[in-house]
Write a structure and sequence with these properties.
The protein is of the alpha/beta class and 404 residues long. The chain has 14 helices and 15 strands. It binds ligand G3I.
C-alpha cells in the first residue's frame, strides 16, 4: 500500500527477456520476474507497478505507468459500456439474507451533492464505513485529546439514513499520530495507551456501531508480524489488549480483525488463521475477520476467496468483505470493464456462497473518490460507478451475483 519509487521502475527495464509468451492476464514482467515477457497475440504487456506487468487484451496503445508521475485520467469516454441494471444493491443483499451491501465514505466527499444523492439511498447502501475519520490520527492526535467531530458526522449520517455503521479502526500501524508511532513506551505504558484509545473511541460510539475493525493489518505479506510500535513493544499480545478494551466499551459491537491479501491461500492467511485460532481458544472477544478485497482486474479467484472465507468461518467467526475494489491499468477499455464485471460477480458470489459472510462493503462506490489512483500510479477505475456517477458494467455483475 505504498507508492513505488521511480528507481525501482528503472530496475524493471534491466530484467532479461524470456522466449515464451505469457497468457492473457498473465504476468509478463516486474522485478524478480524470470518468466515470459512477451504476450500472446491480441494482448500487450502493461506495467502495473515495478513488481508486476500484465498481458492486457488490446492494450497496445497504453503507455507504461510512470511511478510517482501523474495518473492518466480515468474519465470514461462516451464509447465505453455502462451498467444497465436498475436493481438496488442493499435491497438485493438483504433479500438474500445478508445484513447489508455498503460503502466507504469520507468527510470531504459529503459536500458533493451529486455524490450524497446516491450515497444517501439506503436501498443501495445499507452500511457505511468512514475511510479516515475514525483513525487514530483523526481521533486522538495528541495524547488524551480526543476529536470526534468528523467521526460523528459519519455516525450521524448512518443514523439519519438508517444504515449500519462499521468502525474503522482502533489499532493500525498506519495513520498514527507521531506521539504514538515515534513514542518510546514501556509495556505497561503502551498497554494503557491502547486501552485508553480503544475504550474511549469504541465507548464514544457505543450502540451506534455494528462492527469495529479493532485490529487492522497486523501482518506482512510473508506472514511475519508488522514491526510497528505495537508489536515492537508488546509482541503478539496487542490484539488481545485492544479486543478486550473494545469489548468492555461496547459489548454488543462485533469485533473484527481486518486484513488484505488473505483472500487466497498463502503465508499471510495462514498467520492470521493461526492468530484467530489462538485468540478464540483463549476466549478473547473476537467476532469476525474482515477480508479487505483490494483486487486487480483479471487476477481474482472467486473460488479461492470462497475457500478462505469458509476456512476462517470454521474457526467460529463471521466474515465480511470490508473494502472491496478491483483496479485496472488505465485507460479503461471495454475488455477491461467486461473482465471487471466478471471479477466483481465472482467476488460477490463467493460471499453469497458462505453463510457466515455477513455483508459486502465497497471502498467507495465511485471512481471519483477512490484511493487507488493516488497510491498506484496509472491505475484506477476500481469502483462500480465511474467518476461521473454512471454505473459501470461492474454494477451489473454485482447485482447479478446478489440476485442469483
Ligand atoms: O488529512 C490530510 C490533509 O490534511 C492533507 O492536506 C492531505 C494532503 O495529501 O492529506 C490528508 O491525508 C490523507 C488522508 O487519506 C485523508 O484524506 C492522506 O494523505 C492519504 O494517504 C490518506 O489515504 C487513505 C489511506 O487509507 C491511508 O493509508 C485513504 O483515503 C483511505 O481510503 C485508505 O484506506 C485504507 C484502509 O484504511 C485500510 N485498508 C487499505 C485502505 C486503502 O489504502
Amino acid at each position: 500500500m505504498v507508492k513505488l519509487s521511480a528507481s525501482l521502475a528503472t530496475l524493471t527495464a534491466l530484467i532479461p527477456l524470456a522466449a515464451a509468451q505469457a497468457a492473457e492476464w498473465g504476468q509478463c514482467g516486474g522485478i524478480g520476474w524470470t518468466g515470459a515477457t512477451a504476450c500472446v497475440s491480441g494482448t500487450t504487456c502493461v506495467e502495473s507497478n515495478p513488481y508486476y506487468s500484465q498481458c492486457l487484451p488490446g492494450a497496445a496503445s497504453v503507455a507504461p505507468s510512470s511511478p510517482g508521475g501523474a495518473a492518466p485520467s480515468g474519465t470514461s469516454s462516451g464509447s465505453l459500456p455502462t451498467g444497465t441494471s436498475t436493481a438496488k444493491l442493499n435491497t438485493l443483499a438483504k433479500a438474500a439474507s445478508k445484513l447489508y451491501f455498503g460503502t466507504a465514505t469520507d468527510n470531504p466527499e459529503l459536500t458533493d451533492t451529486g455524490y450524497t444523492a446516491i450515497l444517501d439511498d439506503n436501498t443501495q447502501f445499507g452500511q457505511i464505513t468512514p475511510a479516515n475519520s475514525m483513525k487514530w490520527d483523526a481521533i486522538e492526535p495528541e495524547q488524551g485529546v480526543f476529536t470526534f467531530t468528523e467521526g460523528d458526522q459519519i455516525a450521524d449520517l448512518a443514523m439519519t439514513n438508517a444504515m449500519l455503521l462499521r468502525g474503522h479502526n482502533c489499532v493500525w500501524y498506519n495513520q498514527l499520530p507521531s506521539w504514538v508511532s515515534d513514542g518510546t513506551f514501556t509495556v505497561a505504558q503502551l498497554t494503557s495507551v491502547i486501552q485508553n484509545h480503544c475504550s474511549t473511541l469504541v465507548g464514544h460510539y457505543k450502540g451506534q456501531v455494528y462492527a469495529w475493525d479493532v485490529v487492522n493489518e497486523p501482518f506482512n505479506d510473508d506472514g511475519t508480524w508488522r514491526t510497528d510500535v505495537f508489536f515492537n513493544t508488546l509482541g503478539t499480545s496487542y490484539p488481545q489488549i485492544a479486543l478486550e478494551a473494545a469489548s468492555q466499551a461496547d459489548p454488543n459491537a462485533k469485533l473484527y480483525i481486518n486484513e488484505y491479501n488473505i483472500e487466497f491461500a498463502g503465508p499471510k492467511a495462514t498467520a492470521l488463521l493461526s492468530l484467530v485460532e489462538s485468540l478464540k481458544s483463549a476466549g478473547v472477544p473476537l467476532d469476525g475477520v474482515g477480508f479487505q478485497c483490494h483486487f486487480i482486474v483479471g487476477e481474482v479467484s472467486g473460488s479461492g476467496l470462497q475457500t478462505q472465507l469458509s476456512t476462517f468461518a470454521a474457526q467460529g467467526v463471521e466474515v465480511a468483505l470490508t473494502e472491496l475494489d478491483i483496479r485496472m491499468t488505465l485507460p479503461e477499455t471495454p475488455a477491461l470493464l467486461a473482465q471487471q464485471k466478471t471479477d466483481y460477480n465472482s467476488v460477490i458470489t463467493a460471499c453469497m456462497s458462505v453463510e457466515s459472510c455477513v455483508g459486502i462493503t465497497v471502498w467507495d462506490w465511485t471512481d471519483k473518490y477512490s484511493w487507488v489512483p493516488s497510491t498506484f500510479s496509472g491505475q484506477g477505475a476500481a469502483c462500480p460507478w465511474d467518476e461521473n456517477f454512471v454505473k459501470k458494467p461492474a454494477f451489473d455483475g454485482i447485482a447479478a451475483a446478489l440476485s442469483a
